[in-house]
Design goal:
alpha/beta; 8-stranded mixed beta sheet; two-stranded antiparallel ribbon; 27% strand; globular; binds cytidine-5'-triphosphate; binds calcium ion
């Protein structure tokens, strides 16, 4: 109770956060990636650490640095993020999956640099494992699992469908149609849905402030 008064409501709790993009190798010099900066995930990890939690941060390639003490695991590909998440998930009381995981990865990675021989060139891709859905199927009653949804149309319906399909407790909707939301920006605009599909709409804020809002919503579930 002392700790709660001191503002450390998550002391003794373990939190897993993922952040950043994944890079899927095409050959030794090229990859398929995305514009995720990692800022949102790092802000969430830092906020949880500030609240007293023991934080594990699994991150793809990013220039971000954490300002708190946490266990950081650097990975590159979606497959590596899946392995790391599967290792860390069972010990986590709370998991927030904010990474922008590649949906597709090359069927094969060329051992040597691909030469520009042909006029047309196509790459064969296969689906990656949905990490969040796989954690959702492993989730115990004492665990909280939070995902993100990045949408450009029918945002709310898509977000709610992901919440159900992946067995989440909360989903954070990011619409690319909102001004003030986006990959490289320092601000974000979110809407959070719970399992009863109640929605909470937040104003455009700094990613640090958005991280506080997300953590607050999670604290309400404890
Ligand atoms: N996610 C994941 N593993 C993947 C793809 C996505 O864990 N291979 C997670 C993301 O970290 C995010 C959530 O799933 O928390 C939603 O990601 P999003 O791209 O919005 O949805 P998808 O399920 O990938 O569906 P789509 O891209 O077709 O909208
Ligand atoms: Ca996706």
């Amino acid at each position: 109770e002392d700790f709660i008064r001191k503002g450390l409501p998550l002391l003794g709790r373990k939190v897993l956060v993922t952040a950043g993009p994944t890079y899927e190798a095409i050959d030794p010099v090229r990859f398929i990636g995305n514009h995720s900066s990692g800022k949102m995930g790092f802000a969430i990890a830092d906020e949880f650490a500030r609240l007293g939690a023991e934080v594990v941060l699994i991150t793809g390639p990013t220039a971000e640095k954490s300002s708190h003490t946490l266990k950081r695991i650097d990975i590159v590909s979606a497959a590596q993020m899946l392995d790391a998440c599967r290792q860390e998930f069972e010990n986590a009381d709370i998991t927030v999956m904010s990474a922008a995981v590649a949906d597709y990865t090359p069927v094969t990675t060329a051992a040597q640099k691909i030469k520009k021989t042909t006029e047309e060139f196509s790459l064969e891709l296969k689906k990656t494992t949905d990490i969040l859905a796989s954690l959702g199927s492993l989730k115990r009653a004492d665990q909280i699992l939070v995902g993100f949804a990045l949408e450009t149309e029918n945002e709310e319906a898509h977000a709610q469908a992901k919440l159900t399909r992946k067995n989440l407790d909360l989903i954070v909707l990011n619409s690319l149609n909102d001004k003030g939301a986006g990959f490289k920006m320092n601000t974000n605009k979110i809407t959070i849905f719970n399992r009863s599909f109640e929605k909470t709409v937040f104003e455009t804020k700094s990613k640090t402030a958005v991280a506080k809002d997300i953590c607050n919503e999670i604290l309400k579930l404890l």
